[in-house]
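F.,

This is the one I mentioned.
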């Protein structure tokens, strides 16, 4: 979840994995495990186990320590599993995916795949998930709160041999893909805030960050990064400075991260294929149906100016249309929000 950097967020940092990852995998089911049993399984001392539990607590996990019973994760975690997330995938999407990777910890999934672009420029159809990110990014340089094991942090690398004419609309098309995925999960009220933020009931639930290498009118590689809140409930949520929500807040039962991951991945690769074939044209009307700000008074913040006016939707090029002083103006960049007064 996107947030403005605050000084007290220094606990969100990179930690050394390996044994710590193994420990989390063991206790993820929410059962009690004694310190001695964990020490034996991991091949470390009981004091080391205790130190690792403290580190997990620093990552936002609530660990119970009960004398005579041991340690327990207060809320079980569903860690990502490639086989489980492939279950919702159809044959068409599987053919488009060349590789799926799950990393426990990364600076960001986008930066990981951008490094792959530099090393293997012809790579395409590569998906990378992370259980946590310590330098996740949103639009306009904001950090993205990425607690361990709670949400979806996914990037997809796609190679365009020839970018469509309306290539600048790719981010809007990807927002439609995520909205489709959320509807498949069962939430019909999903909306999009220009250009590609995912909203539900007036609260932000996800966002998209695109990075490109190559020529915008020729061969190029694009990394599409998605952050989607699934079970956000850790202490890290206190650092989010806007209204937010997550999928679990809208269901009575549990929400499977692996099912969500598979559905989002499928909708993304199918949308990338379709955008490569015909550009934004086949997404335009659907994007307009999801538009959460059309007909509302908005504020558009740009680098050196602030625009206030009535949002009228988007034009054929994906530009935001704002009416002010009797004139309709087009905008391609900026951070838009709804006026509260």
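My design for it:
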């Amino acid at each position: 979840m996107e947030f403005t950097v605050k000084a007290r967020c220094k606990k969100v940092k990179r930690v050394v994995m390996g044994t710590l990852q193994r420990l989390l995998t063991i206790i993820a089911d929410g059962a009690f495990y004694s310190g001695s049993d964990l020490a034996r399984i991991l091949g470390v001392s009981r004091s080391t186990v205790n130190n690792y539990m403290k580190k997990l607590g620093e990552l936002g996990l609530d660990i119970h320590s009960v004398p005579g019973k041991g340690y327990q994760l207060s809320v079980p975690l569903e860690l990502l599993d490639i086989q489980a997330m492939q279950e919702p995938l159809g044959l068409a999407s599987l053919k488009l995916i060349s590789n799926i990777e799950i990393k426990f910890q990364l600076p960001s999934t986008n930066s990981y795949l951008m490094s792959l672009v530099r090393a293997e420029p012809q790579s395409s159809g590569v998906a990378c998930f992370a259980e946590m990110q310590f330098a996740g990014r949103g639009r306009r340089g904001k950090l993205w709160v990425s607690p361990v094991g709670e949400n979806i942090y996914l990037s997809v690398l796609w190679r365009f041999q020839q970018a469509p004419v309306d290539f600048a609309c790719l981010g809007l098309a990807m927002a439609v893909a995520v909205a489709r995925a959320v509807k498949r999960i069962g939430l019909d009220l999903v909306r999009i805030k220009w250009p590609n933020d995912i909203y539900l009931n007036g609260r932000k639930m996800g966002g998209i960050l695109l990075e490109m290498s190559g020529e915008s009118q020729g061969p190029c590689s694009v990394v599409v990064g998605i952050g989607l809140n699934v079970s956000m409930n850790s202490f890290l949520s206190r650092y989010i400075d806007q209204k937010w929500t997550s999928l679990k807040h809208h269901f009575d039962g549990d929400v499977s991260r692996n099912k969500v991951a598979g559905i989002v991945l499928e909708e993304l690769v199918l949308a990338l294929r379709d955008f490569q074939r015909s550009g934004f044209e086949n997404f335009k009307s659907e994007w307009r149906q999801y538009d959460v700000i059309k007909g509302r008074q908005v504020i558009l913040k740009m680098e050196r100016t602030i625009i206030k006016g009535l949002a009228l939707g988007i034009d054929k090029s994906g530009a935001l249309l704002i009416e002010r002083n009797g004139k309709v103006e087009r905008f391609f960049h900026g951070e838009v929000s709804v006026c509260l007064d």
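The chain has three domains: 2-73, 82-289, 293-338.

Talk soon.
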